[in-house]
Amino acid sequence: MILINNIYKSFRGGVGERRNHVLTGLTFRIHEGKVTGFLGPNGSGKTTTIRMILGFLQIDQGEIQFGDQLGGCLQSAKNKIGFMPEDSSFGQQLTGREFLTYMGTLARISSAQIRMQIEHWASRLSITDALGRQIKGYSKGMKQRLAMVNALLHDPQLLILDEPLAGLDPIGRVEMREIMQELKHQGKTIFFSSHIISDVERVCERVVLLDRGQVLFNSPLSDLVATTAVGDRYTINYHSSASGREGESAEVTGEEKEQLIASIIQDGGTIDRVTPEVVTLEEAVYNLQDRG
Ligand SMILES: Nc1ncnc2c1ncn2[C@@H]1O[C@H](COP(=O)(O)OP(=O)(O)OP(=O)(O)O)[C@@H](O)[C@H]1O
Ligand SMILES: [Mg+2]
Predict the structure, then answer these.
(1) Relative to the CA of 86, which ligand 1 atom is closest?
(2) Distance from the alpha carbon of residue 20 to the mean position of ligand 1, in angstroms
């Protein structure tokens, strides 16, 4: 749907400082109909990348290609993309409803459609009660919710969300994740940044992992966990003839596992449980970064 092709971007440092090379040959795709998580530590260039995709920031080198579904170029893609910025400090003097109505009008949506969309999404994001109040009185989480309603107003094909879960309370996080799932089932494409790996793990089918200006990993989530599996380690819980009621446990490799099981049984013991070690995405990512 979007191809980010060999992008370079650097910023001028302060006086006497070296140029800050943020992206050095960044390449990945945003696949249609998938939820892609864009992971990377603070300052790794996630927001910079998103701003370049949306045309807010110039690219030093490389190119971004928009697929036919998006009309083939940024200009025609724009009204098919919904964007939620990282830090939304827009229209402070307006009420939530005024802001959304204004944004909907800019996006050339009919006023009936605007009203319908506001009602639907504000209710889904539990922000309806605050719509009559000025945005400057909103909490961070309320601003996030309002920004999400805004991103969804024109029923976009592609959602680009910069840290959509940041600043939300646990209930808000669940609600936001549910909405992302729902949108996915409607066939929407979602690209969202986060540095919280467990959030990505819960909703994403693909991950793009940014590290030192490049993509360290870009593939389905299951591949990431599979290719970085720490090794074949197992925990064996067993009763030997001598261990009594409590039982014992041992951590072994796949090879040792066979031997240990054989010898326990030979000695008249019993095997209670053999558990393969589960690699979390968190561990997988740290394994990758250590190797890099
Ligand atoms: N306009 C700018 N001028 C100078 N440096 C910038 C500018 N925008 C970003 N940078 C630098 O580029 C790097 C990447 O910043 P970016 O905001 O893209 O990171 P991020 O991955 O979004 O981080 P975070 O997780 O904190 O949101 C940082 O070192 C930042 O200081
Ligand atoms: Mg950012």
Answers:
(1) 27
(2) 10
Task: Report the atom number in ligand 1 closest to the C-alpha of 41.
Answer: 25
pTM, to two decimals: 0.83
Q: Tell me: the pLDDT tens digits for 198-234?
A: 778 788 889 898 888 888 777 777 776 665 555 677 8
Q: Which residues fall within 8 angstroms of residue 40, CB to CB, at 6 or more apart?
A: 46, 193, 195, 209, 210, 211
Q: Distance, CA 241 to ligand 2 centroid (Å)?
A: 58
Whether 89 shows a pLDDT value over 80: the answer reads no
CA of 254 to the centre of ligand 1 (A): 44
Domain boundaries, the chain: 2-227, 233-276
Residue located nearest, by CA, to atom 30 of ligand 1:
43
Helix (H) or strand (E) run with residue 248 in it = strand 248-253
Q: Write the CA distances from 74 to 66, 147, 226, integer angstroms.
A: 7, 21, 36
| Closest residue to atom 31 of ligand 1, CA basis | 43
Which CATH number fits the domain 2-227, given the four candidates 3.40.50.300, 1.10.472.10, 3.75.10.10, 3.40.630.30? 3.40.50.300
Q: Which residue has the tokens 């995405």?
A: 281
